[in-house]
Design goal:
The radius of gyration is 20 Å and the shape is globular. The chain is of the alpha/beta class and 190 residues long. The protein has a 4-stranded parallel beta sheet with strand order 1-2-3-4. A two-stranded parallel sheet has the order 5-6. It has 7 helices and 6 strands, in the order H-E-E-H-H-H-E-H-E-H-E-H-E. The chain starts with 5 loop residues before the first helix and ends with a strand.
Amino acid sequence: RGERGVQLFYILWQIRAAKFVGRLIGERTFDLIHHITFGRYWIPSGMAALGVPFVFGPVGGGEQMPDGFLGDQPMRGRLAEFVKGAVQRGVAWFPASRRLYHSASWTLAATSQTEEKLRELGVTNMSLLPQSGIDREFISSHAHLRESKPEGGPLRLVSACRLIHWKAVDLTIAAVAQAAEKIDVRLDIL
């Protein structure tokens, strides 16, 4: 079904999973519950209320598309960003959500933007743990490679993501097209 109904499915899955794990807790002993699915902080996990130490994340969802990019988005993308912003602002008004965030033993924020949103909700037991990307130390330690050209072929770039507006694959294609005027480059979109 694509993206249609996925948020509702996720919320219903959360309810069902919490009930299932709650029954398991009656039969077995658990040291820790770790929520690692979907990863949007504004859909809290019912697992936090089961009385077992709980780790939430890594979760994202605190990101917003910069205003300068919104004008290039189709109406559907602009609407999605508006709704996401409303949800981000609204989550602070739901006491049940706040209780769940505060009952987590630890929360892992996948982005600095999400970390900031969670801190605004009063979450203190938290670490930043990016779920993708390359850290600055790695980039610095390989800076000498910037000047070298790949041997035997073009510079190969890969974009691996869902093809949805906020992943900005259209900007990637445009940037590679500009680069292709000066260097031999190939972009693979997965």
